[in-house]
Structure formats: C-alpha cells, structure tokens
C-alpha cells in the first residue's frame, strides 16, 4: 500500500521538476532577441534593414549614415549588452556596485587612472561628425533596451542597465588602451626586482629583445635566409669559469614604495582575471603586394591575440549606407570598425608594445600635503572626492590626487593595506615619497576620430591621415588599398625621453626627467611598397637603428621568424596559403633552443638505481630528440619539450627572483622568454646554479630530469599527447569562479599551438605544484582581406556573435575556429543580401 502511494508521488514530483525546467527554458528562450520582424520607431528617418548571415553577423543597410549607426547600436545591444555594460562599469570604476567588494581595488585603480581626462571630456573634444555617430549609436542601443528583454546576467545580478550615453563608447576605448599597455605591470615589476636584486640582475631579467633577432622594418630583406642561433661556446665576459657564478643570494625589498607598487600590481591582476587579457597584447599581421599574390591583388591577413573568453572581445558587423561601406570587428560599445576593410582599403593591427607609462617619485610639501614639487617649485595637487557604492556594503569615500604628471597611485594604499590594527599607517610613512604615473593616453585621445577616418579611407594616403589621430592604444598598422599599394606604420604616441630610461622610477620634482614631447607621426617607423613585396609584424622590435626608445619589452621573435621564413620564400600566395600560415604550429622557439638541448642531451643520461625510471628518462630523451617541432594535438614530443621548458624557467628564475615575485615575473611571458633565450646563449651563467655552479649542459640535464619526473608524477606515463593536456575552455565572467560555468562556459577542447607558434595558444606559467597547460590566450579573430575583391575575403571568430548563452550564435563558430575553417565575409550589397538568413527592419513611425 505504501509502495503504491510512493511511486506515483515520485513520478508526480519528477513531472513537476521537468515542467519547471521546461518552463524556465521557455522563459529564457523567449527572452532572446528576435532577428526577424519589424520595430516601429520614431528614432530612424527611413527604413533600416538589419540582415544577418548564417553566423548571426549583422549587416546593416540604411539610407543615411545616422540611421546606419542606429541600426548598429540596436544589433550590438541585442547580442552584447551585458558585455558592453561590464566594460563601461570597469572604465568608470563601478564594478563593485554589482559584483561586490572583491572588485573594489580594481574600481579604485580605474577611477584613479581615468581621472585626469574622463570619458566625458574625451567625447566633448571629438569633432561634430564623430559626436553625431556616437549619439546615433547610443540611440540604437537605447532603442534595443526598450524593445528587447535584458540578457539573463542582469536578472542574476539583480540590476537593470542604465541608458547608454555617447561618452560611454569612449570609456570602452579607455579599457582597450589600458588592456593593451604592458608598461604598468612591467615597470612596477622591474622596480620591485631592482629593489630586491640590484640593477645588474634586473637588466638580465628584463631583456628587451634577443640579440641578432629580426626587426619589422628590415625583416623582409632577410626573409629567405633565416639564421639559426647556434649555442655559444663563449662564457660571459665577466665569467671565466663556472665557479665564479655561484648564487648571489636574495636581498629583501627595502622600501615602502615596493609594497605600494605591489598592491597596485595586485589590483591590475584582478582586473585581468575578470575582463582583461593576462599576458596579452600580442598579434600577427602581414600584407603582400599584387606581384606576390596568386590573385594579382594586395592581400592582408590579421589575427589579434588576446585572452580567451565567451563572449569574445570582438563583435563583428558590416555597415552599408550611401556614405559608408565597411566591415570588420568592433569593440563592444564602440561603433567604429577597429580592424577590417571597405571597398578600397584594409588594415590589420598588432600591439606596438609601447612603453607608454612612466612612474614618478613625487616630493610632497612637508608643510602642505596638497602640494607637490614640480620643476623645483611647489604646485597644488588637484583633488577629486569620489564615492564607491558596493553591493551589500556601505559606500566608501576616496580622494583621488592628481599631480602635473598624472594621478598618484599611492592613494590606492589606504584601501589595500594589510596592516594590522595598531600598526603605524603606511600612508603616514609615504607622504614624503608619493608615486604618480604619466600615461601617453592623457595627451592622445583621438583614437575614435582615427578609426572614423580609417573606416572611410579610399587609399593608403587616407589611412596615413587617420593614423595622425590614432596614437593610443599603440598599434602596428599594416594596410593595403585596391590600387595594389601596401604599407606599414607604428601608430603610437612615442614619448621622447632624453638621458633617462622609462623603466626607472623617475624624479618628479626637478624637471630633469620630463618627456620632451612625442615623436612626430612622420618620424614614426614606417615602410611603403617594399621591393620584397611583403610586410609583417608580430610585436617584435621595429628597428635596432631607430633613434627613439619605443619599448623595453618586445615579444619574443619566434612568430615573426616563422612568418618571415614562409613569406620570404614563397611567391604566388593564394587564400589557402594565408590560412595555412595563420594556423601554423611549427615551434620556432624550439628551433632556436633545441641546439642547446641536443648538445646537453647528446649522450644518454647517467643511470640510477631505479632501472624503470632510467628507461623512462631515455624514452623521454628520444621523444624529444626525434620531435619534428610541430605543436599539434597528437604530438608527444611537444609534451616533453614543454615540461622541459617550464622546468628550465622555474630552475633559472625562481631561485633568483624568489617565490614571492616569480608568479608576477612569468605573467609577463615575453620578458621571461626573451631573457631565457639570451641567457641560454651563454655556456656559463650565474643563474644556472643559485647554490651550486654548473654549465649550460649540466643545467639543462638537471632541468630535464626534473621536468620528466613532474610529467610522470602528473600522468604516470609518457604516452601523453599535447592535446590531452593542452585544452581550451571558453569561460564566461560568471563561469570563472562559480557553478554557473556549467551553463555559460564551453569546452574544454584539445588545441594545437603554444605561446610562440604563429597560431598561438598560450597558457599561464604556474607554481610547480600547480602546473598545467590549459590555454588562456590566442587569436581573438582571424581575417584575410582581398582588397581587389572584398567579397572573396574570409574571417572567423573563436566563439560566436551573440553573448546570450542560449542563442545558437553563442558558440557556433568554435569548431570552425579550432579546425582552421573560415567563413565568407561579403561586402557588396548584392552579396550581402544573398547571404542573408535573418532580417529585422527598423521602420519609421
């Protein structure tokens, strides 16, 4: 009898649960935006068509530029409203309002660094034509907020987005400029390490660029003769024997400035984990002239490398109006195509790696803490009182202080300090030694104008005019036009520093270390129509002979060397050739380093009492020495190589830097890899043995044994392929530290590549006990643009167009992206309409 009652009750309960889940699913599905239908509105002057292709990419067709921007705003808000709002909140320092107190330190950082010239002021400085575009875009975003349901993230966080304002688009560009600036984290770290170890060892640890490596301006001249760096048989000049290289010991950090800067570095790191691109800012671009192309037209290829996430950082769209026909990727919240092309021109970006921030030691007036000495006289500090509203907590008041150089970042300390109750306040000890930052962006705020002009460029001369206004974020532009011209220019606000290095903590009081203006646009690194018929950049050095210091932390040269090798040796390049190069996973870093490894492992390793371990060590040695240097998913040799390289990095740097700073150091992986390459060129080096002196061969042998021990400890076998341990999971902001990742995240997927392959797939260098190879960084888009026939251009995104997790276009491009597939990206009106799958019309009332 009891059983007869329980079983029906169970079935009824299950039925109720299923019905509730179905109801929830239906509720969420009905909240998705409609890509078909008609919206009647007084905001547009004429009919606006929002066509979408099979990938959900919007193609906006309008009878005026204003209406086109309204249509773009509507479409972008349909797909990415939550992402737009998150970027806006990050720039304004308002994340903790909706995400809680953990984001307070990041909010303080961003409200501080944007205080000297807020987004509202940048907007007011824009020409009327740019303001009109931003206003129209804002109208479209707000129309979508009125007509469409909010994405589910707003429901989960319990708030509604505020109306979009034109200046909000400027805030998104602020975020991108900060995200692509390597200087803040690099120079804080350099100061901390210099405080700890002294200038000499800091110089070794911060190699700007490996010697004898190719430059952007001259690389095409040597494209068909790649020199392989052979192991050096010479010791360092100051080191006649390995016995002179015993470890020097670690000196403790010696100033309160070091503590403060480390706190600021922590705030920056927290931002990267939520919204940014840890260790990012790398990319590839190249352009070939018609005579080198199978099509007889100039072809441009670009893949920008940023942190992986879902939705991805880029939104893809196409606008057609009588004045404009442009397609490409846009930053969510900004209505101008960043990278892409029109009927006449195309352009692609890589990060310049510009040293765009300097830190100044500020001497405060001991009698008036609201004054600072500048050029040997005291001047007033500008103060801004601000309040941070925090979800679930009382508001926090904060004072931002701005010197003639820029904001004082030591004002971050009172809210970040970990001083115990009763301890002297660190702020009291810093009043005479404040630290401020000067940022190039404070003098160069015309990026939106530069993009507006580039979207309309009819030839590369027009693009050069646009570059005059595009200084931040600093980007290497390669470009081409339909007439067959190709060109390159470093679009950057390059500070002129006379007699001092931007890596140092500078004197702010006597005027001796002030910038002497900026390098004029005409004097920035550039090249046009080289005889070799191609130009490329991969965040590598511009030129050894360039008279101004651009960067102290270029990317390692490996990607450029591979691009140089293939472009320099091949003519008649067709679309498939460009696709293969973008997907290339030949490990050129290994090509440069394996000669040292082969020399060290040329003979079998010494045996031990553990015969089974000896056998496995020999098997691993053979796997590595027989490896074809391809970082594909099936490779076992790639696994051995990466365990060895990580072991070398830990053994080389951790004992010198110390466990406290080592995690920060390896986050800046290009500094790490550049220094690694430079150090390994020496047969003897003090870093090879912090306690016991050894030569390079002995050091590599020791690291190899340690690495293979770790591999066996992690997996129990050498029968492990790269794809088994090197996987990519697309993580949503909600899925990074919560169970909501089950719904919002995608993957993990096995992936090819590594840090330094042309098709990159970088991973974090973690503490030895936490080692893993999960990909966090890679191509954020791929584009191959045919300037002579734009309809033949192709593209792909790593995720999808939509940011709504139940949309079919949230993740529909993942498989194609991973497998190297591309989709067509039509530009002409006829091809656009022919490719249309959806049609939404904004109809005037």
Brief sketch in words of this structure:
By secondary structure, the chain is an alpha+beta fold.
Characterise the protein shown here.
The protein has 845 residues and is α+β, with helices and mostly antiparallel strands. The protein has a domain at 2-30. The protein is built from 27 helices and 29 strands. It has an 11-stranded mixed beta sheet with strand order 1-29-2-3-6-7-8-9-17-18-20. Strands 4, 5, 21, 24, 25, 26, 27 and 28 form an 8-stranded antiparallel beta sheet that branches. A hairpin with an 8-residue loop joins strand 7 (324-330) and strand 8. The protein starts with a helix and ends with a strand. Mean pLDDT is 88; it is low at 223-254 and 413-431.
Features:
single chain, 845 residues, alpha+beta, 11-stranded mixed beta sheet, 8-stranded antiparallel beta sheet, 27 helices, 29 strands, 37% helix, 18% strand, globular
């Amino acid at each position: 009898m009891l059983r007869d009652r329980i079983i029906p009750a169970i079935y009824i309960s299950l039925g109720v649960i299923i019905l509730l889940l179905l109801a929830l699913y239906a509720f969420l599905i009905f909240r998705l935006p409609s890509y078909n239908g008609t919206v009647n509105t007084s905001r547009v002057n004429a009919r606006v068509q929002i066509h979408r292709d099979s990938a959900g990419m919007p193609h906006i067709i309008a009878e005026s530029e204003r209406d086109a921007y309204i249509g773009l705003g509507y479409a972008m808000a349909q797909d990415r409203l939550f992402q737009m709002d998150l970027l806006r909140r990050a720039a304004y320092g308002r994340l903790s309002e909706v995400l809680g107190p953990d984001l307070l330190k990041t909010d303080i950082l961003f409200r501080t660094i944007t205080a000297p010239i807020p987004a509202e002021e940048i907007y007011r400085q824009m020409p009327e034509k740019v303001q009109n575009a931003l206003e129209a875009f804002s109208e479209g975003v707000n129309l979508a907020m009125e007509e469409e349901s909010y994405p589910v993230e707003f429901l989960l966080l319990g708030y509604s987005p505020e109306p979009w304002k034109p200046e909000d688009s400027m805030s998104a560009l602020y975020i991108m400029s900060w995200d692509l600036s390597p200087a803040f984290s690099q120079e804080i770290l350099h100061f901390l390490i210099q405080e700890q170890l002294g200038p000499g060892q800091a110089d070794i640890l911060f190699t700007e660029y490996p010697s004898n490596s190719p430059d952007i301006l001259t690389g095409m001249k040597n494209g068909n003769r790649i020199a392989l760096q052979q192991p050096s048989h010479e010791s360092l000049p100051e080191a006649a024997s390995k016995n002179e290289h015993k470890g020097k010991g670690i000196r403790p950090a010696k100033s309160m400035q070091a503590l403060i800067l480390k706190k600021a570095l922590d705030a920056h790191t927290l931002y990267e984990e939520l919204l940014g691109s840890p260790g990012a800012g790398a990319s590839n671009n190249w352009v070939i002239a018609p005579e080198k192309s199978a099509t007889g037209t100039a072809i441009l290829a670009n893949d920008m490398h940023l942190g992986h996430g879902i939705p991805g950082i880029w939104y893809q769209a196409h606008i057609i109006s009588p004045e404009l026909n442009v397609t490409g990727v846009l930053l969510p919240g900004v209505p101008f195509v960043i990278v892409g092309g029109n009927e006449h021109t195309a352009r692609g970006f890589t990060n310049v790696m510009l040293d765009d921030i300097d830190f100044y030691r500020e001497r405060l007036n001991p009698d008036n803490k609201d004054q600072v000495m500048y050029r040997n006289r005291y001047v007033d500090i500008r103060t801004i009182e601000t309040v941070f509203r925090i979800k679930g907590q009382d508001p926090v008041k904060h004072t931002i202080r701005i010197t003639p150089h820029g904001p004082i970042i030591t004002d971050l300390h009172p809210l970040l300090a970990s001083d115990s109750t009763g301890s002297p306040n660190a702020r009291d000890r810093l009043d005479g030694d404040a630290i401020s930052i000067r940022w190039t962006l404070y003098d160069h705020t015309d990026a939106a104008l530069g993009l507006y002009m580039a979207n309309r460029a009819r030839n590369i001369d027009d693009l050069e005019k646009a570059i005059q206004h595009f200084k931040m974020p600093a980007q290497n532009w390669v470009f081409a036009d339909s007439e067959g011209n190709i060109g390159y220019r470093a679009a950057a606000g390059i500070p002129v520093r006379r007699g001092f290095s931007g890596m140092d903590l500078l004197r702010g009081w006597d005027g001796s270390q002030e910038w002497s203006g900026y390098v004029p646009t005409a004097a920035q690194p550039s090249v046009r129509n080289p005889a070799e018929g191609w130009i490329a950049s991969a965040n590598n050095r511009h030129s050894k002979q360039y008279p101004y210091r651009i960067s102290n932390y270029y990317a390692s040269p490996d990607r450029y060397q591979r691009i140089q090798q293939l472009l320099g040796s091949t003519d008649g390049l067709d679309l498939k050739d460009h696709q293969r190069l973008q997907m290339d996973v030949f490990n050129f870093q290994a090509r440069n380093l394996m000669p040292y490894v082969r020399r060290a492992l040329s003979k079998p390793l010494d045996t031990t009492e553990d015969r089974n371990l000896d056998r496995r060590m020999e098997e691993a040695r053979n796997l590595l020495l027989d490896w074809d240097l391809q970082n594909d998913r099936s490779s076992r040799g790639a696994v051995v190589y990466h365990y060895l390289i990580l072991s070398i990095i830990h053994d080389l740097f951790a004992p010198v830097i110390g466990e406290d700073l080592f995690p920060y150091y390896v986050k800046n992986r290009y500094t790490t890899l550049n220094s690694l390459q430079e150090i390994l060129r020496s047969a003897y080096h003090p870093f090879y043995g912090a306690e016991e002196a050894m030569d390079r061969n002995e050091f590599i042998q020791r690291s190899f044994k340690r690495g293979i021990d770790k591999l066996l400890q992690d997996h129990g076998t050498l029968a492990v392929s790269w794809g088994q341990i090197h996987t990519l999971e697309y993580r949503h902001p909600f899925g990074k530290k919560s169970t909501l990742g089950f719904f919002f995240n995608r993957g993990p997927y096995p992936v090819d590549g590594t840090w330094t392959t042309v098709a990159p797939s970088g991973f974090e260098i973690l503490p030895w006990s936490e080692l893993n190879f999960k990909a966090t960084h890679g191509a954020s888009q791929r584009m191959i643009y045919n300037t002579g026939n734009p309809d033949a251009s192709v593209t792909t995104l790593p995720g999808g167009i939509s940011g709504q997790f139940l949309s079919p276009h949230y993740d529909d491009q993942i498989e194609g992206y991973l497998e190297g597939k591309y989709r067509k990206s039509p530009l002409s009106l006829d091809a656009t309409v022919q490719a249309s799958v959806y049609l939404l019309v904004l109809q005037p009332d």
